[in-house]
Design goal:
- It is built from 22 helices and 18 strands.
- With 502 residues, it is α/β, with parallel strands linked by helices.
Amino acid sequence: MSLAIVHTRAQLGVEAPPVTVEVHLSNGLPSLAIVGMPETAVKESKDRVRSAILNSHLEFPARRITVNLAPADLPKEGGRYDLAIAIGILAASGQVPGELLAGLELIGELALSGEVRPVTGTLPAALAAGRAGHGLIVAAANAPEAALARDTRIYSADNLLRVCAHLHQRSELPGAEFTAPPARRAQAELADVKGQQQAKRALEVAASGGHNLLMFGPPGTGKTMLASRLPGILPAIDEHDALEVAAVYSVCGVEHTPFWLERPFRAPHHTASAAALVGGGTQPRPGEISLAHGGVLFLDELPEFQRQVLEVLREPLESGEIRISRARAQTCYPARFQLIAAMNPCPCGYHGGSSAGGDTRCRCTSEQIQRYRNKISGPMLDRIDLHVPVHNIPPSELNQAPPGESSATVQARVSRTVALQQQRQQKSNAQMNSRDIEHFCPLSTDDQQFLEAAVIRLGLSTRSYYRVLKVARTLADMAQQESIGRPQLAEALAFRTLDRAP
């Protein structure tokens, strides 16, 4: 048989489109040509495949070999096609039987010795292979990650010879079975935070409704400490969302398998570029917002980020995804994250605060303070539901503060509130659209007039008006109330601080 067909998978964002490797042997001068829009790394696979076959004590055909990677209009990159090309050449030359190849997919890079090396994006390929009803052969190092796709038959391969023996049905490759993750990493405990009741309340509201939160106050008041406690009070992530998160990390080549059932917490430095934050590059890769998918993105020192970097967050904050367009293809990455930000009230950080002796330390002028706060645009502030001041606590109050609630206690309340929202509208309150708000957030005539007057008096935008209603709905859910009342509206309005008209 001079023609062989082998199935594999490409990598396009977090998707794994199918690729058919067609290998044809014909008469002519010995050569190997790869067609089908291969990138440089794919073109170089001809040398890796040749050496791997010879060093595995197999015969490399001295014929004209043509390898077609179909579909031809899909860009192919990386060394993930090496194993499929090698098996295709061996099958076309009659060295391995092709009976099992119809129900198998192969992904892996080959070393010159014939060893199968790991590649990125194995989990999306495993999930896609399972949906197609195929088994998947991967490198041994990729097997634990691929095993997260429980509906897919995963085979672990150390080298090319073991794959050939499996196809000859002489010895079966070991399967990779799903194993429950070990005990979760210890989460930062909310009870360690003394005082700051208003900030703790805002943190619980944010967790209960999926709302974005901005904390502002002098340095050393516990803003970062509070933000790091949010993952510990969020409800447990479900398996579907956890697989989405693990797929993003798989594409990035970051080891995430032992912690795949934990919500991610990402805290990029304020010098991060727009591409680092939202993704991009010549060969598009996920950014921090996709690595925070299903979890928390913490931006400390928010005004220190470049303004154009912050502005690119506006679209994913609304849509929950980020699309990166290039000349050859458009890549979509999930980016449904919860934004927690922290900032100082002024450039020096001490505006509105006082030292232990009671003397104000801030020497910033009003123009400097306004210029500092203007680094965050109005549209960006509109998309943050909760603005919470975090004040200094006197040492006397700090020492006498009673122990706070544990993260487990708060998480139980948050989980009940989230379950109520899922039962009512199948989404969090923060994800409601205008039609959902009209249906699930009705107000009495008096409360409607109260809210309209408050919005006009405070100079809030239309987007802020709807976000106030979303937060009020969350507050009502936390109080186990069917309808939104005046106390919930008043508290929700109190959380809109930084975007009020002067």
